[in-house]
Amino acid sequence: MQGGASSGGIMLELFGRRLSSPLFIPSGIVGVDELLAGQLGLEDFGFVVLKTITLKPRTGNQGVRVYDIPCGMMNSIGLANEGMDVFMKETLPRLEGLPIPYMVSISVHSVDELQGFNRLAGLDLWAIELNLSCPNVRHNSRGLVAQDGDLIFKIIKAARRLFNCHIVAKLSPDVAFIDEYAKLVASAGADGVAVANTFQGVAIDVKSRRPVFDRVVAGVSGPAIFHLALKRVWDVYRTVSLPILGIGGVYCADAALAMAMAGARVVGIGSFLYHRRDGARAILAEVVKYLEDNGLSWDELVGVAHGVIRDKQA
Question: Which domain holds residue 159?
Fold first, then answer.
């Protein structure tokens, strides 16, 4: 049965691919070296979104990059990555040994910049995430790409023409009405939507009386943002029929179940992995047990809290 529980896992489909778990690793959490080291328990995940790639290599932001806060963490990594050339020549060949599907993630700030990723168009990729919402890399003085509706529409439209694979738009939670942005990316041709990136926050060191981060603003993640992220997933599900990749503060099975009930087709386990690298195993086992105890399939769970289970095309 599609979206049903199997022994030790849950079978479902996303973008035409059969997955063995509704849990995934969002972009920015784990690098390729660790993915291939065999210590993460990748069998507990349906897929992984790779760390975001930029056209040119980035060393990332200066100063403090990670800061613990009650019920979560803040980060100002700044999309540190090897750049497109090294990714194509060295990283991609290594991914042939990955035991689960992967989604490539790219950072794009303009239609012209998008054309620089045209080498990806010739690859047999499953899906590409357009990271339009990194809180640690500003588009301009006005904010993030994902806060500029006209621009994200143009970028998605251009990506739809350029790539033959599935396209996922990663949205920012820091907008007034995220459902309106979801409508935009759907109308532009996106196949799915990741809801959402980290929230923007500020930390102050009271001893120095200065911001903790050099850039002042940093991304907030962890259990502290879960119910805020859940609200964004809820709003997007009520607005568009695209599959939702639900992300934000999931730290236990109940949170994963709630994210699905709000409308997430798949559920990301992100900063929780910094505290428990094997944390997904217990979450998946409890989710499987919940489905079995209640006689439900995963498909029946997605969006059930809205009162009507919609037939969503994966």
Answer: 23-243
